[in-house]
Amino acid sequence: MLPEQHDILWTFMTMAYTLFAFYVFVNVIQHCRENEGVNGKLWGGIFGAFALISFFETVHMFDLVQADQMTFIFQYQILTVLAILLVWGVFFKSQDIQNQSSPIIRAFFFWSTVSIVLAGYTNWLPQQRSDPPPKAAAIAEDLTMEEFVEMGRVIVFGAKQVAGAKAIGKGQCPLCHTFDPGDLSGRCPNLFGVEERSHTRIKEDRYLNLPMKIGELEQVAGITKGKPDEIPEEYRRTGSPDLIGEDYLRESIMCPSCYVVEGFGKDADTKSPMPVITKPPVSLSPVEANAVIAWLQSKDTPGEFSNVTVPLPTASDAVAEDTSDDEERPVFVTGTEPIEQMINTLGCPLCHTIPGIEGAVGELGPKLFEKINAPQRIKDPNYKGSATNTKEYVRESILDPGAYVVFNEAEGEPFPDGLMPTTFSQMLSVQALDKLVDFISQTEAPPEG
Amino acid sequence: MLGKQTGRYQALSLAMVMAFAIYLLPAFATDALAKEAYAGQAFAEEAFAKEVLAEEAVAGGEGEGESEIEWGQDVFYKDWEGNPLKGPVSGFPAPELGPSDYNNYEFAPSRMILWMAAQQHLYFGSFVLAVPIFCMLIEFIGIRSKESDPIMSVKYDRLAHDLMKISLTAYSWTAILGGILLFTFITLFPGFFKYIAGIFRPVMHIYALMFLAESGILYVYYYGWERMSQDPFLKWIHVSLSVLLNLVGTVLMFLANSWATFMQAPGGIDEQGRFLGNIWHVIHSTLWNPVGVHRILGNIVFGGGIVGAYAAYHYLTAKTEEERAHYDWVCYVAMFICIFGLIPLPFAGYWLMKEVYAFRQQMGITLMGGIMAWLFIIQAVMIGLLFFGANSYLHNGMSRVKGAHRYMKYSKYMILLLIVCFTMWMTPHTIVMTPAELKAMGGAQHPIIGHFGVMSAKNTAVNLMITTTILCFLLYQKANKKITVPWQTIGNCWLSAIFIGAAANIIFLGVYGYYLPANIRVGLSVPQVTTTLTTLFVGTAINTSMFKDAETYGEVQWGTMSKVGTYAIFLLAISFTWLMGLMGYIRSAVRLFWHVTEVMRDNSVDAYTLTIGEAGKMLTFNTLFVWVQFVVVFWVASLTGKKEETVPEPQAVPVPAQQQQ
């Protein structure tokens, strides 16, 4: 279900609860008619009111989208049902209460409780959804800022948002960043309030001097810090050369090591573990990078786009996008590609250092020196996987990353489990997997010096 | 096993085994002979193809202007040399679907609507295919017992007739749901349906004709019940009709299965999706046999669950003692059928998974170690629930058996063991954690609980759970018996030794597994399962042998089952329904973003794989919704029943194993 649609389960339950409320009303009325001493008007009024409340709650449920439906049903309608049950019990007090409801009602409550507990259990487990990568967003002449921001959100989270799910889009940002207040992965900074920070940060001493001074060139990204008029032309904004908040955001994705938030870097916070987002394997185009910046600038104020300073893409941008062979397809490698292309397509260099692959200097995950490391890890008492040799270990690590979590000796803690996607089995043909395993099994640390 | 008339109940068991064997034999035999027969067939086809090609080449050489036949390579079938089988291209390629090939409503994604329509139809289809199997067996037992026990014979006949009455209403309902499913396909996925209909055109027509045949036989079978009961010969004809009904029903199911198995693991087409002229190849793709067998067994389990819940509900609403006794007994029979079908079900599941791996290893890995892996953890939890339900029913059932007080004191220990095992069984290997949590715990696995997350612990847990359930059943069997055979002490010692030895062996093998390399450790599951099966077969054999000339503490008091025991049957029914939906979802969802694996891509906006939570909510909805419909169907069926109340209630109910003399 899409967020803007109804939840099929809660919609069903709300109708069932209202039917139950009317059933109780009829049951009470029948009982009153059979027993002259009972005040039919009073009890009929009470249970009629309950039935009406439940009915209006159901009507209201149809006005809500699925996330709100769940909140409403648990906060209000279930309370109404419990109240009905309680008052019903009071009505039949001392009159063989347990036999006053039909077994069908008791069975229904038993049935629905067990079933909903099962649904609850499935929602308690880690949520992961597998998306065929979205089709390239069409850039129309009359694109609105709302649509442009949505394009940015799709790049971050994927084509569609499912309630409760944290999907990962082309930008792969949610692998490490979080976006809601108080939500910390511990790996990279929480980006809640980043728009506000972008204006103040560029004035801080730490930004001006660490890990490099304004005007110095960052070698990996090839970006000069704090100089918006010197970044590659296709990514450059127009207007004043003065540094503004938008420039800080752009610099953060194009040159993560130009400034490293305290406590989130390597080598005494001088290097960021984040890859350059405008280079392979993520390779956001200028329009896509701007869309992400627009989303970052407006995400904390839903529906309000006054903070967005990036311009809407023009028709010429659209033409440029179309000519760059950047149509998004499902990430799938067949094994016929060169190994370097395969590895870049799969995004391994984002997190791993892989000898023999240019630009594969990621540090979020273990360095892949598997020729030496794999045999040692299989012998590790903590190893609980099923591999018996290097190739099996590498294969297992690709398909089931959680089978063994490598200890990060530099940090004195294990590398985080759950960061590495578990969907490589859907991205690789059998031949591609074999080829990848063969290559990685032979990787070893380059000779020192 | 089911009552005093041991012979007849053993005959019931035997008849069920025979029926299963007859049902499964063609599929197993087909599978066993498939490779051999197939190699010959493939060779012949290849030879024929070469012959035709050679003729064409000659014809072409002679300059004849005849239209050329295009030959395509099969995506699955291979010849005896291992090369892709060739066939004449006889259809259009699978289209690249675009936005115009998908329609949708605003209130829900098309994929969800289709899921709901398909699942509801499958639930009802499963029920109406299972009930005739029960009816066939029960009616057969009734005929066989007519001479020796006319009252019981009438009782069986009445039960079979009642079940058929419910099934008749459900049958119409199933057809309606099938129509809804068909319209959903045509209206929401027209591009996909056009392609599938093009491939399966003759199969769909045969399916429709078989449906007609099924309906005709069903109506004659049901409406001719009374008339054909008058004459013994006609009665045999009548029961033969039920055999025919089941055969036609099975063919129907297998035909419909071919559409699903083709989508998951296609055969008989080339890489572009073009039909290669052999409809049998399209039907008989690699997963066809295991899915068919798995579904037959699943239908029996599900049907048993529904009948059990139906009887349990009537038990709760019964007005007279006779009614209560009757429905209590029906609950017991239904439970027995359920468990009977459940035992071989995992083996059919293993076969299916083996074929999945054989088709595409990647698909198997996606299921067992990829995005679907968590769903199998949920499956484990559901199986745990089934064990709890079955044990709870047996424990509560003991309360109506005189003499059971001797064993009921052990119930609490068995429940405790089940809880411990269940906890181990559902402990995940790893969970998603923050680095801080990881650091605090000292690694990805907890230093103590982490040991329960591996297969050594899980195999130990599930084998102990099964063994406990077997023990519970044996105690239930002997609950009201005063054993008189001279070797009873030895027999009890043997039973004790078997169960204590089994538990010790299972635990030892489980612990030993921690000290072995992973590849050897995997092999330990075989002796563990063998140990468990030994307790089942040897334990039951010794136990039953000890009943010879046994005295009884009293009859089973049918109709005195506690409400908790009745709700345990409800729990089983819910669990079966939910589990069936879950496994169906897994089988279907493993196609990921393909309508037909690797041939026809799903280009709709719904081509994603759901999160577990979203799938779970849908499963819960489907479970609740189908049961609402079952209640309506049962109610509709009861409307006709009320007119027939003049038929006197048989006074006797079967007596269970406890009364065996």
Observed structural traits:
heterodimer, A: 449 residues, mainly alpha, 3 domains, two-stranded antiparallel ribbon, extended, B: 661 residues, two-stranded antiparallel sheet, 6 strands, 70% helix, globular, disordered N terminus, disordered C terminus
Topology summary:
The complex is a heterodimer of chains A (449) and B (661).
Chain A: H1 8-34, H2 40-61, H3 66-91, H4 103-124, H5 145-157, H6 194-201, H7 205-209, E1 217-218, E2 223-224, H8 245-254, H9 286-298, H10 315-323, H11 339-346, H12 370-379, H13 390-399, E3 407-408, E4 413-414, H14 424-427, H15 430-441
Antiparallel strand pairs in A: 1-2, 3-4
Helix pairs in contact in A: 1-2, 1-3, 2-3, 5-9, 6-8, 8-9, 12-13, 13-15
Chain B: H1 6-61, E1 71-78, E2 84-88, H2 110-144, H3 150-188, H4 190-199, H5 201-223, H6 225-229, H7 232-264, H8 279-283, H9 288-317, H10 321-342, H11 345-359, H12 361-368, H13 373-398, H14 405-408, H15 411-425, H16 435-441, H17 455-477, E3 481-482, H18 488-513, H19 518-521, H20 525-545, E4 551-552, H21 563-589, E5 594-596, E6 600-601, H22 612-641
Antiparallel strand pairs in B: 1-2, 3-4, 5-6
Helix pairs in contact in B: 1-2, 1-9, 2-3, 2-7, 2-9, 2-22, 3-4, 3-22, 5-7, 7-9, 9-10, 9-11, 9-21, 11-12, 13-15, 13-17, 13-21, 15-17, 17-18, 17-20, 18-20, 21-22
